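Lecture notes, unit on protein representations.

Consider one protein chain, 204 amino acids long.
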Amino acid sequence: MRFFATMTLLAALLLAAVPASAAPVPSERVVLAGGCFWGMQAVFEELHGVTRVVAGYSGGSAFSAHYEIVSTGLTGHAESVEITYDPSRITFSQILAVYFLVAHDPTEINRQGPDDGRQYRSEIFYATAEQHSTALATIASLERRHVFSAPIATILAPLEAFYPAEGYHQDFVAHHPDYPYVVINDLPKLHELHERFPNLVSRR
């Protein structure tokens, strides 16, 4: 019960209303890694204010940004999603709330669920100094409140490049909802997202 109350309080703090703005706000982007990009893409595509999510690779070179090579775990790449969002409709803190509390387990090191290897690490590739400071503050808050039973293993690094994954990986969950891996590992995340953050889910 105490854990649930803590999570509820944290969610409330992270889900502060986005201030209204009279002038159009330019879109922003961030690249997040947290295990297989199929489920990550499916989760973030559900959010209002998120205008585009692309599955791909970040952390390595353009030459090695191919699934068969990345799968060796030796390229430096992490399976990632590039999220483009409208900061007047959803804040980076709200995106991070979903990232840490729904999209993956940030305490696992170089693995996520059934997937093992450095390409499945937890990492935030921030695009701005503000994203960096917000990520640091969010991690500090989660640690201070002991939301997880183990230390957060998420790495922070500046975004240098993002390479879209092969076409057959894009929107994999939407195209293959009955695929066994998706049923076991990804659909429960979507259910949890709708349960925990209904006010962030797009009505489209």
